[in-house]
Amino acid sequence: MVTEIARCLEVNLSSLKSDWGNDANDAIHMLLDQEEAFCLEPIKVGDTVVLALPEDMDNEDREALAGALHHWYRNNRDPKDDELTRDEYVAWKDSFKA
After folding, report:
1. DSSP string of 77-95, one letter each residue
2. Directed axis angle between helix 60-80 and helix 24-38, to 10°?
3. Who contacts 85 (Cβ-Cβ below 8 Å, separation ≥6)?
4. Quick count: other Cβ atoms within 10 Å of Cβ 38?
5. Does the structure show a pLDDT above 70 at 15?
6. Buried b (16+ CB within 10 A) or exposed e, 15-27
7. Does residue 70 have a pLDDT over 70?
8. Structure-model confidence comparison of residues 82 and 73, the more confident one
9. pTM for the whole thing?
10. CA distances from 14 to 44, 46, 78, 84 (A)
11. DSSP class of residue 15?
């Protein structure tokens, strides 16, 4: 029913959920939703499993997600490389909250 409400409102299902929780079950549901929405796939790089976007993205949303992921990676790396303070990183993350 919530899926139908999200479709009618033309919003992502995740935006109607107040909290994803913090257990593995919630995490896998969120990841599977993103797999369907953006064709993300888990791949293994060395001993690490990562999410990958297809190289031949033809959808503007997928391209936007790829750009956002690169931006997130850079901002997440900056505090570790002393390019961005931890407070600046937290403020950047908070800018996406509704």
Report:
1. HHHHTTSS-HHHHHHHHHT
2. 130
3. 79
4. 19
5. no
6. eeeeeeeeeeeee
7. yes
8. 73
9. 0.52
10. 26, 31, 28, 29
11. G
